[in-house]
Amino acid sequence: MTATAAAVEDEAIDAQAIRTLRAEVAELRARLDSYERILQLRDAALDAAPTPAPPATPQAAPQAALPLPDHFDIAADQLLPIQDGFYQLEWGPEGAFRWTGPGHDVGFEAWLDRSVPLVATLRLFHFGTPANAKELVLEVDGATYALSRDGNDKILRSEPIAPRPGDGPTCLTLRVPHLHSPAARGAADRRVLGVAFQRLRVEPA
Fold it and tell me: Among 119, 117, 170, 165, which residue's Cα sits nearest to residue 142?
């Protein structure tokens, strides 16, 4: 074989190899295009599909309301606002007390069980005016209950307080009929005072 013939044969082989490579590349490209098309169709299908709702969380069963306490107890050294009819906290030989005033009424709001009759016990440090010892009354939800003194002590107890349906707050009002001012006796204290309150307790009769 001459050099010229050999060169021609080599060129033919190279051309054939190039055609083979081109065919393989074309086939790979076609496959790649098919894969890309499949991925596009998959993504489109996922976008169109509705988003599944999250699984429903089971709701907790409603808790039963806690029972109301069977008594109400409040003392002078607790937070008793001025708007409820009290002056600032003071101390005496029998402990803490607060004078009521300047109005006749002292208000309390109690949350307690009203399904049974109740009795209120009031402890005072001072009656202010002696007539208050016999004329103090307690109003409960609009009904008036007399307060009777326990011997010579400064402790008074109410008549039985009638039960009522429902679990709302109980409104208690101590009515002090007689007020006085220390200034009327020459003292520097110009306040208008009722009684010196120490404690109120309401409990089953």
Answer: 170
